[in-house]
Design brief:
Layout: H1 3-13, H2 19-34, H3 37-68, H4 72-101, H5 107-122, H6 142-145, E1 166-168, E2 173-174, E3 182-188, E4 191-201, E5 210-212, H7 224-239, H8 242-251, H9 258-274, H10 276-287, E6 289-295, E7 298-305, H11 307-335
Antiparallel strand pairs: 1-2, 1-5, 3-4, 4-5, 6-7
Helix pairs in contact: 3-4, 3-9, 3-10, 3-11, 4-7, 5-7, 5-11, 10-11
């Protein structure tokens, strides 16, 4: 320890320190803790894993809806009944392991690297468990663009902002009944305000040209439950490291600096993980869009995504964050041999 560090700690130990004196010490303490290589590497590793959590919390529901055609209610039920309890159980078991095994400052990085590596490997099958993008006329159904019927809806003058997907009897999805060239419809006998079937659709090939007033069904809904189970298992294993890494922050700083170090930890996690990560994951979704809805001539929201591209980028970004975090923990494991470990309850030996 340098003389200035010892003086700062001695000042903090003075119970009669005034608020003004603390404010004078604040910049020096903040810069010193922020420039501590061990603490900074540890917080950056936690930021990587928090970014993964932010991406899951923000976009997991939308991903499952778009990828597997699940309803909002179904996705909310699965996430609430499977994923969230798995995260809570992982944190609980991680705390028990920390207490029973008595993990030290040197063993916590090793334990975390093993658990997080397993969690990352469990994400690999998710890259292949997905649905191909549905065939949408004039969007990604190239055959439909060059059919003799491709000029079938010119006289309909379909508005540019029309977006009411219908599934044609030919298995191709259309942006709206107008784009399918439908000229008639039948109402639902149980609900006169709901259309049961669009008929006489000139853009749909085949004998019975009709369309249902809903998007075409997903071609792999059976993947939904295995995927949510795999994500939940990976989350559970990753959360085993939550409490050990949190305790690691407390053990690498002296007694007088613990609360201040926790404040810096949460500040950096908000600035480096919880603020930019949702925006970055949102950018990944936007870059996977193949057709944008327009309102008043301006781009509004994405109507159709490239499912394969979205799945690979969504999970790829998560795996990338985890790999960076694991690399930082490996470096921490090496530096832990040179770092003094402080007791969580007793003050440091330099106290007078």
């Amino acid at each position: 320890r340098t003389l200035s560090e010892t003086d700062s700690n001695d000042d903090l130990k003075n119970k009669d320190i005034s608020l003004l004196d603390f404010l004078k010490l604040f910049p020096r303490m903040f810069v010193r803790l922020l420039l501590s290589p061990f603490l900074l590497l540890l917080i950056l590793a936690q930021c990587c894993f928090s970014a993964v959590t932010a991406g899951l919390a923000t976009f997991l529901g939308k991903f499952l809806e778009r990828q597997y055609g699940a309803s909002v209610v179904r996705v909310s039920q699965l996430v609430g009944a499977v994923n969230l309890p798995a995260v809570a159980v992982g944190m609980l078991i991680g705390g028990i392991i920390m207490k029973r095994m008595g993990l030290s400052l040197k063993s916590i990085p090793r334990f975390s690297v093993i658990m997080l590596t397993i969690s990352t490997l469990l994400c690999v099958p998710l890259f292949f468990m997905g649905c191909d993008t549905q065939r949408v006329s004039k969007v990604n159904d190239q055959l439909g663009q060059y059919r003799p019927l491709s000029q079938c809806n010119i006289s309909c003058s379909c508005p540019e902002n029309a977006f009411h997907p219908v599934c044609g009897s030919d298995g191709v999805e259309y942006i709206s009944p107008c784009h399918a060239g439908c000229t008639n419809f039948t109402k639902d006998p149980n609900n006169t305000f709901r259309v049961q079937l669009y008929t006489n659709c000139r853009c749909i090939s085949g004998g019975q040209s009709h369309a249902r007033p809903d998007p075409c069904e997903s071609n792999c809904p059976h993947f939904l439950l295995p995927v949510i189970l795999m994500i939940s298992l990976a989350s559970l294993i990753a959360c085993l490291t939550h409490n050990p890494l949190y305790m690691m922050v407390l053990r690498c700083v002296s007694y007088e600096e613990k609360s201040f170090a926790i404040g810096i930890q949460f500040l950096l996690m908000r600035l480096l993980a919880w603020l930019p990560a949702p925006a970055l994951f949102g950018l990944v979704f936007d870059m996977s869009c193949i057709w944008w809805r327009t309102v008043c001539g301006k781009q509004f929201s994405c109507g159709y995504y490239d499912n394969n591209l979205m799945r690979h980028r969504y999970f790829g970004l998560q795996v990338g964050y985890k790999i960076i975090g694991i690399t930082l923990l490996i470096i921490l494991g090496w530096k832990a041999k040179l770092t003094q470990e402080y007791n969580l309850e007793k003050k440091s030996e330099i106290q007078v």
